[in-house]
């Protein structure tokens, strides 16, 4: 199956956890840990390049990271496309380049450029018809060529932090009517808000089985963002599944853990002048070789 169809098959069975892979090695670790999908965060990709998450990197940069993670992990990859790297025509090119790189899907957001992290204040939204046009061009890209079958177009709305939950639901409904396969409500502030949003989208135990406000023939998939230190509380995966969510991303979790360890290691190395005290915190040489599938003296084969 195509990556998109693989992801859809997983989401049709239950709620899928997708940790954020900030590089290919992290993608391999995610797969080896038993996860069935992974996520590429715009924030993580940006800070790994030494720049803030304000839309500074190019489409080519993102496509390279997607290709590396998809190849190394062998997993369906959902990738952040920020505001689509431009206007409607550019959004279609973004969708095509992401699919060629091996992504299973992408999400587009309805913020004005330059965008902000979804959990920061001061965001501004584009008009609804502007976002609808972008979604339609992305959907058209899926249909334009063979090999894109099942590619998931996810529409993210940041309206909750700007105009409130009802506005987020209204925008999401319009995005479903425009053809979005999945909806990503960013910056919700409670479990109750996630539950209400899911019900209004036709998901969850109290829903009627169709996208109520959207008027769609079937409810959209739903994505929840479990980022740390933001406006959303930590909610366990089983609760999201019970509410009707299809995918939960952990966009910067591994990067934050890794960089916390890097910072502490540097402090110790600076203080002690030796890495001897760090050995028990390290991945051994053999563990690293095992992760990349390398055995000394044996020709290495590309994964997959």
Structural write-up:
With 304 residues, the chain is of the alpha/beta class. The chain has a single domain, classed as Phosphoenolpyruvate-binding domains (TIM Barrel). The protein contains twelve helices and eight strands. The two termini are 14 Å apart.
CATH topology: TIM Barrel
Radius of gyration: 20 Å
H/E element order: HEHEHHEHEHEHHEHEHEHH
* Biggest beta-sheet profile: 8 strands, parallel
Shape designation? globular
What keywords describe this structure?
single chain; 304 residues; alpha/beta; TIM Barrel; 8-stranded parallel β-sheet; 12 helices; 44% helix; globular
Short note summarizing the structure:
This protein has 304 residues and is α/β, with parallel strands linked by helices.
What secondary-structure arrangement, pairings included, does this model have?
Layout: H1 3-13, E1 16-19, H2 24-32, E2 38-40, H3 42-48, H4 59-73, E3 77-80, H5 88-101, E4 105-109, H6 128-144, E5 152-157, H7 160-163, H8 165-177, E6 182-185, H9 191-200, E7 221-225, H10 237-243, E8 247-250, H11 253-272, H12 285-292
Parallel strand pairs: 1-8, 2-3, 3-4, 4-5, 5-6, 6-7, 7-8
Helix pairs in contact: 2-4, 4-5, 5-6
């Amino acid at each position: 199956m195509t990556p998109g169809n693989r992801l859809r098959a997983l989401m049709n069975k239950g709620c899928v956890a997708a940790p954020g892979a900030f590089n290919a090695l992290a993608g391999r670790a995610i797969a080896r840990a038993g996860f069935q999908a992974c996520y590429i965060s715009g924030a993580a990709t940006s800070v790994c390049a030494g720049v803030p998450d304000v839309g500074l990197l190019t489409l080519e940069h993102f496509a390279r990271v997607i290709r590396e993670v998809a190849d190394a992990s062998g997993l369906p990859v959902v990738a952040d496309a920020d505001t689509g790297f431009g206007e409607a025509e550019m959004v279609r090119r973004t969708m095509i380049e992401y699919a060629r790189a091996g992504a299973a899907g992408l999400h587009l957001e309805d913020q004005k450029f330059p965008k902000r992290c979804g959990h920061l204040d001061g965001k501004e939204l584009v008009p609804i018809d502007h976002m609808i046009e972008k979604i339609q061009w992305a959907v058209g890209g899926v249909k334009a060529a063979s090999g894109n079958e099942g590619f998931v177009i996810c529409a993210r709305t940041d309206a909750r932090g700007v105009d409130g939950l009802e506005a987020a639901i209204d925008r999401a409904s319009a995005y479903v009517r425009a053809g979005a396969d999945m909806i990503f409500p960013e910056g919700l502030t409670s479990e109750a808000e996630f539950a209400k949003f899911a019900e209004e989208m036709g998901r969850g135990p109290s829903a009627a089985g169709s996208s109520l406000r959207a008027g769609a023939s079937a409810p959209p998939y739903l994505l929840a963002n479990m980022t740390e230190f933001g406006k959303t509380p930590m909610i366990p995966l089983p609760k999201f599944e019970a509410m009707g969510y299809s995918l939960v991303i952990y966009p910067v979790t591994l990067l934050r853990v890794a960089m916390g360890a890097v910072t502490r290691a540097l402090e110790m190395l600076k203080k002690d002048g030796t890495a001897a005290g760090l050995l028990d915190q390290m991945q051994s040489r053999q563990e690293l070789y095992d992760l990349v599938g390398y055995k000394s003296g044996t020709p290495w084969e590309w994964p997959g």
